[in-house]
Write a structure and sequence with these properties.
20 helices, globular, alpha/beta, 4-stranded antiparallel β-sheet, 7-stranded mixed β-sheet, about 550 residues
């Protein structure tokens, strides 16, 4: 079912009920981009490295479509309800929301029929919990200001003169008995605040409201009312402000429902999806992976990644010819006799994906649907497929080991991050981390260290890289390690992979430099820096030249 801001409110109660009744939910997100170039994945990355890369991606790009599929198991049949939400960040006049688009991702989405006009025009608004807390504080300040309770203005002579003119006009109005409303002259925010502050003291029975005029100016409008009417008006105003805030919360209500009901969440290669969920619907992720895992698990205690399960020893030998990309894995589950994706019952109003799947492939709702079907096929193979007893299912020894573990792609020794436990640091005893102040070419660095064995570099940035010794894996003794670390110019910082990975979440930890012994007899002539292109090499830019 497609959900936009046009039908979202009318469906929200049913969505909450469906989530509550489901045995598990599957999710998928489409985004404006996937990776920032400055954070290129590296096979020697640690789980912490990948966390910071994915966190940076979530910070820069937007989720634009959220797929949610609900599965309920009953009498051997899975009642399945796929939702496809278009989502767009909530914004008001003073909001300044900036995000990044990756050209290849935009082309990919366009090629799969994504409707960008619908996204912008009808996307369901949302704000994070962090942003909502800020808005509530702002709302309370505004409420206090309207009653003159916040940051009281100390009255000066010209303030008193200004107020006396207003008092005269109000007294004249009250004595005349003409009309129930009085509109004061337009004024600045400061003088409106001053007026609110003093009116409540002098005229407690009047209701004061800020009113916008056709020319864009704002003034204070006064209403006659008894105590009961005044309280009723104030209550109505508070309810209106609360509803406006809830409208801004928007789609995040669905994420809160999933968290409230503590449902098992299934994703495919979903580390990035979950970082987006946290960043855009809850708030800024913690600086360290360890802190993030604790915070995330407190909100979503049960998650599983079908990519991680598919690459396990139990599943990989069966599906390696197909691969583990989402659609490839789904085809494997359909074609191989080893897997049973179960019998689905999709209610009529959810039958958008019942046929012609090619036209909806990579729509978030469809991808969430097949992610859930893959999960059913995998657990039917691994253990008892009794989905409606989710507690027993997750305690099954052949399934529980995949719980709360998220796949990390292109890693040499560590293939997942454990949300509920410690991540094993890869051995990599033949790998060293090097940092230097200025740019060096690969050949110059290798020439320094190849006296210890054949080696190559894996660049992290222009001034950091990994040094890998091909033939020393598992053979690096403390003596060899110490000798390698001592073999560098003064401006180099060299440490073991283990030391680097264990200290990278502690910025205050400085990797110490060790001067090269003169007796070592190693000398490096620093290569010339890469030539910078001077501005003078380019002709002066003429804006008319592009017309």
């Amino acid at each position: 079912m497609e959900v936009t801001r046009e039908n979202y409110d009318s469906l929200l109660m049913d969505i909450d009920k469906d989530i509550q009744n489901s045995d598990f939910v599957s999710i998928d997100l489409e985004m404006t981009g996937l990776s920032v170039n400055r954070n290129r994945p590296n096979k020697f990355d640690t789980a912490s490295d990948r966390y910071h890369q994915v966190k940076d991606s979530a910070k820069n790009f937007l989720p634009i479509q959220f797929g949610l599929c609900l599965f309920q198991f009953n009498d051997g049949v899975y009642t399945t309800k796929p939702y496809n939400f278009y989502i767009y960040p909530s914004q008001k006049e003073n909001d300044h929301i900036v995000f990044v688009c990756q050209a290849s991702s935009m082309m990919f989405l366009s090629g799969h029929g994504f409707d960008f006009n619908k996204w912008v025009k009808l996307g369901i608004p949302y704000v994070s919990r962090e942003k909502e807390a800020e808005l509530r504080k702002k709302l309370q300040r505004k409420k206090d200001n309207s009653k003159g309770r916040s940051n009281q203005i100390f009255l000066k002579p010209f303030h008193i003169k200004y107020l006396n003119n207003i008092y005269d006009k109000i007294d004249e109005w009250l004595q005349s008995g003409e009309g129930n409303e009085l509109e004061l002259k337009p004024s600045s925010p400061f003088f409106r605040k001053l007026t609110y502050q003093e009116l409540e003291k002098k005229y407690p029975t009047l209701i004061a409201e800020t009113h916008s005029l056709p020319d864009g100016k704002r003034c204070i409008k006064l209403l006659k009312a008894n105590e009961s009417e005044r309280k009723k008006k104030e209550k109505s105003k508070d309810e209106k402000r609360e509803q406006e805030l809830l409208d801004r919360v928007g789609f995040r209500a669905v994420i809160d429902m999933i968290a409230k009901h503590k449902k098992l969440i299934i994703g495919h290669n979903c580390f990035l999806d979950f970082l987006h969920m946290y960043y855009h619907f809850y708030g800024t992720p913690a600086e360290s992976l360890k802190e993030f895992k604790t915070e995330f698990n407190s909100i979503f205690p049960l998650i599983m990644d079908t990519k991680h399960i598919a690459q396990s020893e139990a599943i990989w030998p069966l599906i390696y010819k197909f691969g583990t990309r989402l659609n490839d894995l789904f085809n494997a589950c359909l074609e191989l006799d080893d897997f049973d994706i179960g019998v689905l019952d999709i209610p009529e109003k959810f039958n958008r994906y019942s046929s012609d799947s090619e036209s909806v492939y990579h729509e978030a709702g469809y991808d969430a649907l097949i992610t859930g079907q893959i999960f059913i096929a995998l657990i039917n193979y691994l253990g008892p497929g009794n989905i409606n007893d989710i507690v027993s299912l997750l305690d099954h020894p052949d399934i529980s080991k995949y719980k709360n573990k998220l796949h990390l792609f292109a890693m040499e020794q560590q293939s997942y991050v454990d949300i509920c436990g410690e991540d094993n640091t890869p051995l990599h005893d033949n790998v060293f981390h090097i940092t230097f102040d200025s740019e060096y070419k690969s050949r110059a660095i290798i020439d320094i260290f190849q006296v210890h064995g054949k080696c190559y570099l894996k660049w992290i940035s222009d001034t950091t890289c990994y040094l890998i010794f091909k033939d020393l894996h598992g053979l690096v003794t403390p003596e060899i390690c110490d000798k390698i670390i001592r073999t560098y110019p003064e401006e180099f910082e060299v440490c073991t992979f283990a030391h680097y990975s264990s200290n990278k979440d502690n910025p205050e930890t400085v990797l110490g430099k060790r001067k090269l012994d003169e007796t070592e007899g190693i000398h490096l002539e620093k290569p010339a820096k890469r030539r910078k292109i001077e501005d003078s090499q380019f002709p002066e830019w003429n804006p008319c030249s592009i017309l």
